[in-house]
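Exercise 7. Predict the joint structure of the components listed below.
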Amino acid sequence: MLNITDLHCEIDNKAILKGINLQVRPGEIHAIMGKNGSGKSTLSNLITGKEGYKVSKGDIIYKNESILDWSPDARSLAGIFMSFQYPVVIPGVNNTYFLKAALNAKRKSLGKKELDAAKFLKLIKEKLEIVDMDTKYLQRAVNEGFSGGEKKKNEILQMLTLEPSLSILDETDSGLDIDALKTVANGVNNFRDNKRSFVIITHYQRLLKYIEPDFIHVLIDGQIVKSGQKDLAEELEAKGYSWLQK
Amino acid sequence: MNLSDYQNQFDKLISRKEKSTKFQNFRNSYFSEFLKVGLPTQKWEDWRFTNLSQLKKEKFDISEVHSNSLKRVDLLKYDIEGVITFVFVNGQYQERNQVFPKGLKVSTGLKDFEPHRINVPPKMSDPFELLNTAFVDSALSITIKENIDFKSPIRFLYLSENKTNLMISPKIYLKVSNSSSGTFIEEHFSRKGSLFHNQSTNVKLEKNSTLNHIRIQSNSLKTTTINNITINQKKDSSYNFTQFSEGSGLSRSNINSYLDEEGSQCYINGLSLSKNSQQIDNNIIITHNAPNCTSGQNFRSILKGRSKGVFNGRTIVKQKAQKTNSSQSNKNLLISKDALMYSNPQLEIYADDVKCSHGSTTGQLDEGVLFYLQSRGLNISLSKTLLLKGFSAEIFDTIKDNLIKKSLEDKFEIWLINSQSE
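Solution:
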C-alpha cells in the first residue's frame, strides 16, 4: 500500500526528516508516536502533498507508484485521505455542498455516475449516524462554529464518505472528550477491513486503547528510532520518550 | 471631454423644443452651476482614488430622441412574465402603451421634476448630479400607492448599443407610500461604442414602507458609469439595496441614505467583480438623523488583473440619533498580484448611546484552505471557485427574491468561468 524509503526532507534548509523508512501493507494500522517537533505532521503533509517541503532524498511509493510529484487532489482521488489536526473553516460553503462536490469528484474519477441530491442525502445520513452527528451540520458552513470535537467528527465523516484506501489520522484524538473519542474510534473501527490501511499519528497512547494498531513506531528528531507492537505504547506511557533518545 | 465640449452638447440640447419651458430654465441653472464646480479631480478628497482620465479624454454626444426607438415587437422580447419592465435604449425610454396594475403610478417626462416640485437631488454641489439634471434625457417617476404589498418586481432595463460615443443621463424618482412594499430592479447592459452613463435616482420611503432595490451593472469595458442614489426614509421604513457590479471600465456608485425618522432600517450591500484594468468604486454614506434606526453596509470585492477597487463607507450618527445600531463590513480578495483595493470604513458619531461596528479585510485566497479542499479530491481550479463562491455567498443571501438571487448566482458563475480562462 504505502512504502516510504529513506525519506529526507527539509524546510528552509533545515532538515526535518532524516531518513524515514515505513512500509504499510493493506489492512494494517500503524501508529506513529512522538513528541512535538519530531516530524510527525511533516510526514503526514508529505504523504498528502502539501507544498512548501523539499524532499532531498528518498521516495514515497503508493500502490507501486511514486507520488512525490502528484498534486494533493490526484493523491486524494487515488485513495489517500488525511484527517487534519486543525480542520479549516470555510465560510459561506455549506457542508452538504462541499461533501457532495468531493464525493462526486471521486466518483467521476472512478468512472461512476455523479450522485443526485436525493441519493447523496440518503448516503450521508447513514454516515452521519455512525459518527453521531445531527443532520443540521449539513446545512452549516464547513466547520464554522463547530466545537473541536465536532470538527474531528466531521473529518471522520468525510473519511467515511470518500472511502479512502489509506487514511492518515493526524492527532485526531487531540481536543476530544472521552465520548467523542469513542465515537471517532468507532467510526474508524467500523470502516476497518483487510484492504484499508491507516497511519495514526498521535502524542498519546489514549486513542490506541480504542483503535488497536498492528505496529507502533517512535519518531524522534526526524527518524524512526524504535518500532514494535501494541505493548510498545504501554511502555512509552510508563517510561516517556527520553529512554529512546541517544 | 472638457467643459467647452459639455457646453456644445448643452447648446445642442437646449436648442431642441421641449414641452416644459420651466424645465429649460432649470437645466440652465444646473448647467451654469456645473460649469462653476467643474469635473472632480483626484485632489478632491472624495475622488482621491477615482481615475476619471478616460472620461475626460473622450468626447460624447447626447442621445437623440427619435433615432433610438425600438418597435413594440422588439421590446416584447425583453419582457419577463410577472415583472413590469421599462426599457431604455441608448438613453431613451421606450414608450409603449403598457397597462400598469392598480396601485402603481407611472409618469414619464420631466413634469415631476420641475422646480416647484420636490424631486430634485438635495446635494447641489455634486458635479454629476448637476450634470444629470442639466442633461436629463429620460425621466421617470414611479409611485407605489398606500397600503399595497406590490408583488410584481419593477424592472428598468438599460440597453445601449451605440455606434458613436454616447452620453446618457437618466433621472429616476421612486416613491413607496405609507405601509406599502415593492421590489425595484435595474439592469445595465451596454456594448459597441463608448458610453458615459450618468444616472441619478431618488428614493422616498414613506412611513412603514419597504423597498428591495437590486442593481445589476454589466456594462461593457468601454463604459464609464456614474450612479448617484439618494434615499430619504420616514418612520419604520426599510430599504434593502444589493448591487452586483461586474461591468464598465470605471464604475462609481455614490449612495446617500438619510434615516430621517425613528425606527427605520437601511442595508446597502454589494459584490464587485473586476478584472483587466477595470475600476469599481463604491461610496456609501448613511446618515442617522433619528433615534432607534438600524443600518448596515456589507461590500465584497474580487479583484483580478490590474483592476482597482474603492470602498468608502461612512456612517454618520447625529446627536439625536440615540440607540443607533449600525455595522460596516468590507472584505476584498486580491486574486492577482497587480490588483489594488482602497478600503476606508469610517464612523462619525455624535450620539453617546449607540452600537456601531466596522471592519475591513483585504487579502488573498487562503493557501491552507485551498490545500484542505484539494486534499478532498477537488482540483485547484474547482477549489478556488468554491472559495470564491463561499466568499460571496453573504451578499447573495441579502437578496430576498429567490429567482433574482438564482439569476445573479448564475451570472457570477459565468464570470468565474470567463475569468479563469483569461
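Discussion. The longest strand of chain A covers residues 14-24.
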